[in-house]
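Notes from the 1:1 (GR / supervisor)

We went over the backlog. Supervisor wanted to see one worked example end to end before approving the batch request, so GR pasted a single chain during the call. The sequence is below; no edits were made to it. Supervisor asked that the structure be written out right there so they could see what the output format looks like.
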Amino acid sequence: MWNRSRPGKTSLILLAVAPLLISASPPIRSVEVQIDLTGLRSAKGVVLACMTSQANHFPQCDDDDEAYTLEAPANQALTLTFRDVQPGDYAISVLHDENDNGKVDRVLGMIPKEGFGFSRDAKVKLGPPDFRDAAFTVGNVPVRQAIRMRYML
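Structure output shown during the call:
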């Protein structure tokens, strides 16, 4: 018959070992991801960067509450740093918003007038690269990416 007033041997062992199991798992450590931008054609406007782990939110990070975003004054030698990044797979997109209006200006509705770039220097064909082409892994050590800006016009 089960006696609720006295814990069994198994319960006592679990109570004794549980704190050891909890303390044995290492804490999740956040790191920095730095991007060195090259090829900015001017110091006009701002540079907007976003980093996402969600393929369906790449390259613009729209409606991605977990995306990391940065904005900095444009400068021809520029390094941006995403801080407190959790481990995972990410892709970065960068826009040189020369007129500082917060969006990609286009010609004929499709061709970007302003500069752009992607992590892993992912190639642009008839549109932005796929997430997997720009993706890189963040683990427990800082990551540094070089992104070359491209201008279509």
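Supervisor's comment: Strands lie at 31-38, 46-52, 68-73, 78-85, 88-97, 106-107, 111-112, 115-118, 136-138, 143-148.
Batch request approved.
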